[in-house]
Specification:
Layout: E1 4-6, E2 12-13, E3 16-19, H1 22-30, E4 38-42, E5 47-56, E6 61-70, E7 78-84, H2 90-100, E8 105-109, H3 123-137, E9 144-145, H4 152-158, E10 164-168, E11 188-193, H5 201-209, E12 213-215, H6 227-239
Helix pairs in contact: 2-3
The chain binds S-adenosylmethionine.
Length: 242
């Protein structure tokens, strides 16, 4: 399988593809590809293009599309994850796994019991992680990592119109994904996962006011970096593409 690159849709005009920025240095200095070599390009759609390099210059690489194929690996279930900030690089690792598990967007959250209080924005790093992870797992869409670190209230409001809204809570003893009463399978779901200290009861009430349902992931308490993986895998298995 040849090397895969994501380019913004506007960099594909007719059958011509323009690569810029770090893709150019990767092609020139890491892969040492010359004109005539072929790469794979995904341009913001569910098409995978085979592109033959035409010009490999210092600032720009031009290619022409020689073949395209439908390439749909995006889940039919749009999962929008609200993920409380966690210590160390756990958030980065959880973000990578969430991308592999088909998440549509990730919103970093500051909640009452977040140990991490820094607002030092790591958004650019998280966006890079989302892009690299999408390339690694072969997705055609890069999940959105929201610009700002948000509050629970804003996340709930921004996801008010989704089909299903779930807050995973270790104190929930009755409701699980298996016994949710739903009229039909959801096509979009908002998911809330708390920090190492969990959600406060005030936060749980606030999410309920916004129509979120508390859901258990079983009798054991999962780590803040384990719970999102389990939740996403179960959701994709029930209503997505796992
Ligand atoms: N407050 C917990 C404690 O007393 O140790 C820790 C919270 S847990 C480390 C972090 C997050 O994972 C929770 O906020 C919740 O969203 C999710 N979680 C962990 N175990 C869960 C379970 N059994 N059911 C539902 N959610 C769970």
């Amino acid at each position: 399988m040849s090397h895969k690159f994501f380019v913004p849709a506007e960099q594909i005009v007719s059958n011509r593809v323009t690569l810029t920025g770090s893709d150019v240095s990767h092609i020139r200095t890491v892969l040492r590809l010359k004109a005539g070599a072929c790469i794979q390009v995904i341009g913001g759609s569910d098409k995978l293009h085979t592109v033959r390099l035409v010009e490999v210059e210092a600032k720009e690489v031009l290619g022409e599309i020689i073949a395209s194929e439908e390439f749909d690996v995006e889940s039919p279930l749009a999962v929008h994850l609200g993920l409380a900030l966690t210590k160390g690089n756990k958030f980065d690792a959880t973000l990578r796994k969430s991308v592999e598990l088909g998440v549509r967007s990730v919103t970093p959250l500051i909640t009452d019991r977040c140990v991490v209080k820094t607002h030092r924005k790591k958004t650019e790093r998280w966006k890079k992680i989302a892009l690299e992870s999408s390339k690694q797992c072969g997705r055609t869409q890069v999940p959105l990592v929201t610009e700002d670190i948000e509050t629970l209230e804003i996340f709930c409001r921004n996801n008010d119109d989704l089909d299903l809204k779930l807050v995973f809570w270790e104190m929930e003893s009755n409701s699980s994904l298996k016994n949710l009463q739903l009229d039909q399978a959801p096509r979009s779901v908002a998911v809330l996962i708390g920090p190492e200290g969990g959600f406060s009861s005030v936060e749980i009430e606030k999410t309920r006011e916004h129509g979120f349902q508390t859901v258990s992931l079983g009798p054991r308490i999962l780590r803040a970096e384990t719970a999102p993986v389990v939740a996403l895998a179960l959701l994709q298995s029930l209503w997505g593409d796992l």
